[in-house]
Design brief:
Strand content: 5-15%
Number of domains: 1
Distance between the termini: 48 Å
CATH topology: TIM Barrel
Largest sheet: 7 strands, parallel
Number of strands: 13
Structural class: alpha/beta
Shape: globular
Length: about 400
Amino acid sequence: MMLEGRKSYFGTGSDCLNIIDHRNGERRLAVLSDVEEGIRVCDALSNVDFVMSMFLPSDRHPNIYDRYQMEAMLTNTTKPVVFTPPDMAGCRDTVEMAEIVAGGEEALRLNPFICAYINFSSYVRHNPESLQRMLYMAGKGLPFIYVSSIALRGVMTPVTVAGHLALRNASQLAGLLLAQLKREGAPVIAFRTGGGGFNMKTMTSMYSSPDARGFGGDLAHYYGLPTFGTSGCSDSKLPDEQAAMEGSLTLLIDALEGSNLVHDLGYLESGRTGSLEMLVMCDEALGWIKRFMEPVMVDDETLAMDTIVEANGDFIATQHTVRHYREDWTPSISDRGNYESWNAGGGKNFRECARDKVAEILGSHRSPELPPDLRRRLSQITRRAEELVTASTRSDD
């Protein structure tokens, strides 16, 4: 993925606590198998360009869950990976995993297929642990996003959009400067936040609000920096009509703005819950948006002047129509038939079609497997971290 100009690439988020199980509609804590299934679905969806882990696996120790996330991503997809290291030890281990797959440290630096998403604690105070991770990635010459873990207007920044942008921009530039002091040319991706609002009535973030969208991307383009956006997400609690509306609108805004790396596809409930159904719905919207963003080819063949003369107003039987009618965008789950055919096929709504698509992918899709020796080496790193946690727990006891 060439993060330059106004090229846009889309992927999931990383840290939802909950999942809406597509099999029964239940909202529950996510587990490691949800991470694995989510990555397999991402691998199969043609409009999802990169992956993040989507869920926090509640069935793994909180100090080392990120190793399991990374192992799941590296073994269930060939798409680029954005990972979120919670601490320095995890950052080192996950980069080591990627170096194993890439064929070594230098091979990964020359052709990086990973990017770290590093959160610092406050826009006015960068905590040491996050700075360490950022400087480690910069020293390696590997790409990273460096931003506060939360950007709530009125809580973490001024409530006004202008004040919010000014403080966030200053904080971003401070991180950029430190990275370049560590290693000149270190590849930094600027964060282009979503709405960034805070609902003072309910004390929840407004994940999909329109208020501050777009301006952060303009600043990043002004500096010539690639951007990391937030779209394909919703404040809705279900993958319903509100989710489809907010997910599609936010994706369209990022595409029009030219945000380069856009994450959080499939996020619901202001980032607390993920849904594979919502992910498929976003993939469908992205298919529409990507076609909409394509330029129109204008030449003798597409202008079809000879055909206009010869057809005499009836184009359906011309060879020109036969040559080109299949070029229109074809949806994956949206229905374009008449009422009778839709009803005869079960009369399914959009969410039901998305649910069927998830089940179809999980029942049939497998990404190319890593060689057994590489899988073994990845598992060794995960087991090593597990043993350290176990030993530390015993010493505390």
